[in-house]
Task: structure prediction
Amino acid sequence: MRSFLTALGIIIGVMTVIAIVSLIQGMNYEVEKQISSLGSNTIFVQKFAFGMGRLDWDEINKRPNLTMEDALAMSQLPTIEKVAPSRSRSVSKITWRGNKVTGVELNGSTPALSIIGNFAVETGRFINSDDSLRRHQVCVLGGYVVDNLFPNETPLGKRLVLDGKSYLVVGVLARKGSFLGQPQDNVIIVPITTFEKDFAPGRGIGELMYSIGVMAMPKRGVVMEVAIDEVRELMRRRHRLGYDKPDDFGISTQDTIRDIYTRITRVAYLVMIAVAAISLLVGGIGIMNIMLVAVAERTREIGLRKALGATHQDVLWQFLLEAVMLSVVGGAIGVALGVGIAKVVQLTARLHAAAPFWTILVGVGFSAGVGIFFGIYPASRAARLNPIQALRYE
Result:
């Protein structure tokens, strides 16, 4: 019992590390999968860039809107394979035979969006160039819209009323899940030419977001930074910006989103390190304390061993290995509890949890290191005992 209570600090520290690292690794896996679902190797050009912190909406609102001509010019750059200009707005409610869906993102774009945005079609077809050329009133539905409006029937061939305009459903998108908590399947895609004909910009932020956003995909083998530099130089030239003027547009990539997520999770890592360090320090002090008590209680045993020929190193290793064993067992228990907690969270919160093998090695390695560090002094103290005085000890 005394040994278990001594190792409790080690157990708590290692358990905390393993549980938090498992959950963060699981979150990293999910976020990476979601970022990949936005498209492969994609450059996002908008009126403002992704980022953290407060945005100056007044300044952003004064910026010129991106245009279809901008998108066309980007498509002609030697480093760019495809571009997909898009406009978007929110549709408050869509109904079909008593069923309804709210807060749907209506996106007007081109056929290239299916490749750049990684939109796979489950049934039917995607919008095509003829739809864009002739401004056909056709749409492709996300899985969330289908589940809510057509739970027991196929939506293909049906007509939906989108803000007073009738659109023919020609396809259903494969489900992409959510991105940072926001559903990606609550979307309807229409040809951008039809979008511009039928829908006016909203007010406030909606009017700001009415500006075209352009997704550009570099050619295979092109370095992303080179493509970004070409896009930036093109946009600055088209907006007639002097060399001393800042960009009046934003360029983002998937790495931008990864960087935002990394900065958010960095706090969790720091808290984890602090909690684990305190727990391991407390556990190490406990191990040193119990080993000093053990040396005092076993003084006659040490004297007897030395009288029978035990060397300084023999006694040193005896007590050092006891300290290491105590901490390693505590670390192993902490690893098991940490993995167990991560699995429980995974089952209850439906959050992917993954405990990489390196985290287990780190947990056990750190606990062994704590045992060595805090066990050296008691072990060396035991090894230095005079055998004659030890034999006389009562």
About this structure: Residues 64-248 form one domain. The first helix runs from residue 2 to 37. The mean pLDDT is 80. The chain has two domains: 2-33+259-392, 64-248.
